[in-house]
Amino acid sequence: MLTAIVGTNWGDEGKGRMVDLLSRDYDVVVRYQGGNNAGHTVINEKGTFILNLLPSGIVREGTVNVMGAGMVIDLEHLCGEIKKLTDKGIDITPQQLVISDRATICMPYHKMMDILEEDRLKDKKFGSTRRGIGPVYADKYMKKTIRMGALLNQEGLREHLADLVEWKNLTVTGGYQHEAVSVDAMMEWLDTYGTPLLPYIKDTTVYLNEAVKQNKSIMFEAQLGALRDIDYGIYPYTSSSYTLAAYAPLGAGIPAASLDRVIGIMKAYSSCVGEGPFVCELFGEEGEALRQAGGEYGAATGRPRRVGGFDVVASRYGASVQGAKEIALTKLDVLSYLDKIPVCVAYELDGKTITDFPETGVQLKAKPVYEYVEGWHCDISGCRRFEDLPKAAQDYVNMIEKAVGCRITYVSVGAERESIIIRS
Ligand code: GDP
Ligand code: MG
Description:
Blueprint: E1 2-7, H1 15-22, E2 28-31, E3 40-44, E4 47-51, E5 64-67, E6 72-73, H2 75-87, E7 97-100, E8 104-105, H3 108-121, H4 133-141, H5 149-152, H6 157-175, H7 183-194, E9 201-202, H8 204-213, E10 218-225, H9 248-252, E11 261-267, E12 270-272, H10 284-294, E13 306-308, E14 310-311, H11 312-322, E15 326-330, E16 340-349, E17 352-354, H12 360-365, E18 367-374, H13 391-404, E19 407-412, E20 420-422
Parallel strand pairs: 1-10, 1-11, 2-5, 2-10, 5-7, 6-8, 7-9, 11-15, 14-16, 15-19
Antiparallel strand pairs: 3-4, 12-13, 16-17, 16-18, 19-20
Helix pairs in contact: 2-7, 3-4
Residues 11-12, 38-40, 299 line the site of magnesium ion.
């Protein structure tokens, strides 16, 4: 069974939580894109973990976690993340973690470029996480990056790095008037943070093909959501990678494999980090109350997230580009405080009603059309069967199911692993 777990919206839908729950049925969990701009929260009997680079199956014994070819890896950050787990008594062996030799290294100067550019943009900034993700993907497509495999065989590495740094400094010193990047410092960084990672670096394509042959079950874990996909999201307020399920086999390292199952993770309301259009956004007291109730502060950055009611237009589009046949609806419990629940049923622009998710330019000008549905106004976090939910909560789930045209097979009513309703 090859399953992709993907976000249908702007990210932070609760993917980490669902991967942690579902990974019990999988032998392998693979992250296939992005870098440490993700923040996946996993809460279980071992504690609370915020994972940026490591796949969310890492805290489950017996699961092999793969960091795929499509990822960009800040070595220093990864060493820090591994250390945080070891400090909590979770050892990470090369049997548990495998890093693709084709994955790209995100260098300190990528992070620096990200910061320099966001600062230069001032109020026109994109809302980057400033972790170098855009610059490193740009360099990857320029074919001017170092891949993980180069750490295993360092012959010629220094010369290659010196060429890259020379090219990079044209922009750093010439363009941004910043102090030049030093080859020595970069070599030292590669050595300090690359050496501890050596035992984990392998040809993951060979490993994963073998796993497929042996009929192992593989879960592909996406970072961010459909609306952050570089091509199909709210460009240019997107990430720089492909967040869609279609990319999962490619980014993982088994391009010829096809998915058996795509589970779209969808939140019972909306949130969005950073800049860009977010038509359903709620402001003032209404927004603040929802942000508080949902604890909507970025897991990776701590930034307050923008919030809104459930967005039918965006969610239906997100589920469709993901090719999701089923949905896990998360954070339904968060809405329990509301008498009337806001639902954004359409967008409006120049007197026209829009129901198909439009291009970014249109979204920037569109206004939400809100309707209010009945709340349930009681604690639902203890419910474990769909029938246990109050009628209004059941109606809300059924309304979303109908609106997005996908079966909702899981309803999450709390952050903990077991706070879940599974529908057959
Ligand atoms: P991800 O990026 O998609 O993995 O999501 P994040 O971890 O960034 O954000 C989701 C947040 O909601 C985390 O703090 C989770 O612990 C929490 N969470 C996930 N599912 C639920 C749920 O059903 N109810 C509540 N109350 N919190 C949840
Ligand atoms: Mg997140």
